[in-house]
Amino acid sequence: ENSKELFEDIRNKILEIDSRIEEKVNKFYIGYQIDRKNIIGIHIQQSKIIVDFTRTQPKDLDDPKKKLKYRRNSLKFWNQHISEFDIKNQNDIDYAILLIRQAYNRFINK
Fold first, then answer.
1. 41-79, pLDDT tens digit by residue?
2. Which of 47, 37, 49, 44 is nearest to 103 (CA)?
3. pTM score, two decimals?
4. Using CA atoms, how far apart are residues 14 and 3, in angstroms rounded to an integer?
5. Do residues 52 and 39 lie in contact, with contact meaning Cβ atoms separated by under 8 Å?
């Protein structure tokens, strides 16, 4: 599967979570936000899609398969914790949505 098809699928599922989620296309990533604050960011690469979870460490989400990786030096470079998850095929999408829903719930319950 190519990244474009995977992106279309994940994009539709993210936007279904809450009608307030807005998509904002930037030069380096696509942000999904509510009230101009990113919940997640997506980077589309040739062989995969990287989902960035802003203000999140792996311990903040229930990740039974331990697939969420902490972005080293994220606090130093972006002044916030960032964790990431790679989507390489269709099977990764459902797991990504499981993590994204948790990030969304953390975001709206703050």
1. 999 999 999 999 999 999 999 999 999 999 999 988 889
2. 37
3. 0.93
4. 16
5. no
